[in-house]
Amino acid sequence: MNFIVRRKPPLFSISRPIPLLPIPACHASAAGEASASRRSRYSTAAPGEKGSPSSSSSSSSSKFPEYELPSVTWGVVQGRKERLVSRVIISDYLKSLGIAPDELADVELPSSVDIMRERVDFLTRLGLSVDDLNAYPLLLACSVRKNMIPVLGYLEKLGVPRPRLGEFVRAYPQVLHASVVVELAPVVKFLRGLDVERSDIPYVLQRYPELLGFKPEGTMSTSVAYLVSIGLWPRDIGPMVTQYPFFLGMRVGTTIKPLVEFLVSLGLPKRILAKMLEKRPYILGYDLEETVKPNVDVLLSFGVRRECLPTVIAQFPQILGLPLKAKLSTQLYFFNLKLKIDPDGFTRAMEKMPQIVSLHQNVMLKPVEFLRGRGIPDEDVANMVVKCPQLLACRVEFMKNSYYFFKSEMKRPVQELFEFPEYFTYSLESRIKPRYQRLANKGIRCTLDWFLNCSDQRFEERLQGDYIEADAPGPSFVMGGKLEMPRSHLVSDKEEDESDEEVLYRRTISL
């Protein structure tokens, strides 16, 4: 007697994916027995063999190999052939949009083209273009509901504006693969622990979105710990992160430490260096071998004395990252041609005010023309600029007022301006007038340097004195990092109790 075994049609099709429903524990055994019963119904024992569960199972798997365990990601039972058909359809759809699906070959794709179309539409509405998707096709492997919406919702909750979410994803598309709880939230918590203001978090993340890919206990913690070890206060790290968050992703051994050690070897004290980094953390982004060292060599080649390098860098740290050779060549030519200052004078002026490297030539020319217009010879004007290069940054209208007061009220010879050109750098209303009136009331006749080049406290001490003492030289750097302050009875009692570095830090370095 012949038996005909009819094969039932598959329960799931491509066009109508059916989501998996969890099976209650109480029905698990019953479901297993029912499954075994169905397998035995469609199995046939080989001639001469009795049907057994094991033989039925192996026969079933070989009879219907296209059905395997359901996909964990998409929750739809799909056969191997159906998956291949779906992949071909989805690949054709992506190619029709101009997206190359090559990088998605090893990635699990959705069960239907409709889901892929939903992802493409979502990313397009977010602001991404086809070029953006081609630059990082793995974005299409992210589920809209499981990946994109939770991550973007969290970023918007932090304060990233919705119109800029597309730009954020374009800059760091890997963020859509991240887990909010496991990866993103710990980074935000770490930033808050560094005293980064809550309102600054979105700004920091938009400037450096890759920050969300670091582990707090890794590179970021190491960078912070090293900066604290060289003299930075922990409470100062937060403002540094807000200004330049990129240093959190720099490795200490290969980037931060070599740069710090090189600057210290030039003679910069660590305390001054720490203050520089606090105010201008972007210095940490200068490449040591390609930018910093070549610029130091350029300064030396233009005649800057090695013992003056620390003061030059402390006054103008940006000089380490400029295209220095071209700028110095241009300014040297301008000084020689327009200001009548020789190369040696240019170098001496740059040692005192390295900012002249970046000053616009029209700005520098106006004060010089003003002085020449007062009848001062070119040679004397050049000497005044070399002695006080800050003149080149003065506003002409302020210089006019100061010069008028000097001639009409103080009635002093112009020769005193040659000796003390710094006169034009002081405020007329807050320093020159009040102090001169007090001197006039007391009938004291002194040099411009004596009553202007001192603090208010020192000026009061001088007014109470019985005689006019000579001025003492200012502080200076010495190679090797040690700071020297000239010992003199002119310093106040408070200053005598301070170390040399503290006096320099408090009085002379203003970054």
TrEMBL record:
Subcellular location: Plastid, Chloroplast stroma
Gene Ontology cellular-component annotations: chloroplast stroma
Membrane spanning residue stretches: none
GO BP of this protein: developmental process; DNA-templated transcription termination; RNA splicing
Main location: plastid
GO molecular function: nucleic acid binding
Biased amino acid composition, Low complexity: 37-62
Keywords assigned by UniProt, alphabetized: Chloroplast, Plastid, Transcription, Transcription regulation, Transcription termination, Transit peptide
Residue span of region Disordered: 37-64
Domain of life where this protein originates: Eukaryota
Protein's job: Transcription termination factor required for processing and steady-state levels of plastid transcripts. Required for splicing of the chloroplastic group II intron. Required for the accumulation of 16S and 23S ribosomes.
Family note: Belongs to the mTERF family.
Protein name (record): Transcription termination factor MTERF4, chloroplastic
